[in-house]
Amino acid sequence: MAVDPAYRRKGIGRRLLETAFALLRCRSMRAEVRRSNLGAQAFYETMGFRRVGAIPNYYGNEDAFIMEWTSP
Asked: Which of 7, 18, 32, 59 is catalytic?
């Protein structure tokens, strides 16, 4: 999932993710986030995701954190 930089911090990402939760009716969801992308990590954490692992060199020269959400 990505939101154009010009439209970030306007609740669009939150609405996209909430819509995905509702439409997919999934019990869990996973995202890979750049180690350096603190904003994305914070966003996913506020949405109930937690860091569960890492993938070395996922982006070529940068690791990714695995963020996972599980239905309450």
From this structure: 32
In the residue annotation, 7 being an active-site residue is answered as no
Helix ranges restricted to H, the chain = 12-24, 38-46
Q: How far apart are alpha carbons 57 and 62 in whole angstroms?
A: 5
pLDDT, tens digit, 9 for 90 and up, residues 18-69: 998 889 888 899 999 999 999 999 999 999 999 999 999 999 999 999 999 9
pTM of the complete model: 0.87
68 a catalytic residue: no
Q: Which residue in the list 7, 18, 44, 58 is annotated as catalytic?
A: 44
Beta bridge partners of 28: 70
Q: What is the pLDDT of residue 51?
A: 97
Q: Which residues pair with 34 in a beta bridge?
A: 64
Nearest partner of 53 among 41, 69, 64, judged by Cα: 64
